[in-house]
Design brief:
Layout (H helix, E strand, L loop, with lengths): L4 E6 L6 H14 L6 E6 L5 H8 L4 E5 L16 H7 L3 E4 L2 H7 L3 H13 L3 E6 L3 H5 L3 H15 L8 E5 L13 H17 L7 E5 L7 H5 L6 E4 L6 H13 L3
Parallel strand pairs: 1-2, 1-8, 2-3, 3-4, 4-5, 5-6, 6-7, 7-8
Helix pairs in contact: 1-2, 5-7, 7-8
The structure holds phosphoenolpyruvate.
Amino acid sequence: MSSKHLLVGNWKMNLGPKQGSSYARQLRESITALSRTDVWVAPPFASLPIVASELKGSLINVGAQNVHWTESGAFTGETAPSFLTELGATFSLTGHSERRTYFGETSEQVAQRTVAAINAGLTAIACIGETEAERSAGTTEKILETQLNPILSSVAKESVAKLVLAYEPVWAIGTGKVASLDDIRGAHQFIQKVWSAHNLPGTATILYGGSVNPTNFAEILALKEVHGALVGGASIKLDQWMELIRISEATAV
Ligand code: PEP
């Protein structure tokens, strides 16, 4: 686990190359010193080259929103891990709920993508989380375990430092509904339990994601089980993103 909070902005399918490069320039100019926070952004693929070049040498790391599990081949629309490293990306999300829900990605594929990213030298941020129906049915832990098992059993023990987990309840993503502090604490503690059951070294680095904004972030980040946040909507609004960074800088690690 890092000695800093990790704040990751998922731009989703927003900020194309022109807007993305202009936003990246504003970020570079606004973020000139960080002591308690690692700031990472994941633009859409089309914007990645220009954003990576704009942020080169800055305090901000750039990554992708997804990555394929092979290095080349007949996989129309996909992106190989080495293409990302060549662009200067340092990480990739895997298994975001929008990939699982709208594009049918399975937990096994998410595990394959995660391992390939790590093998290429990227940090993988593997996303897991239950739907509202699954939470109401009392199956949150079962779902988290089912999503985690393929990932935790495929990543090599010596590579786990390159794995970050993001707990993102599906019902809280982009909805304005945020999980309660008890729900977040409980889910993160359960994820650590599954991590230990796999006999992995150390503890998992776990981000919370789901409608994080400047109003709710301080109390979420104050939970000792939470090591940072994966943020969608509030990461593409400069004032809100800068406020999240300010809160992180003001919160003890
Ligand atoms: C996300 O995209 O991972 C996310 C958490 O989005 P939002 O912050 O908009 O809920």
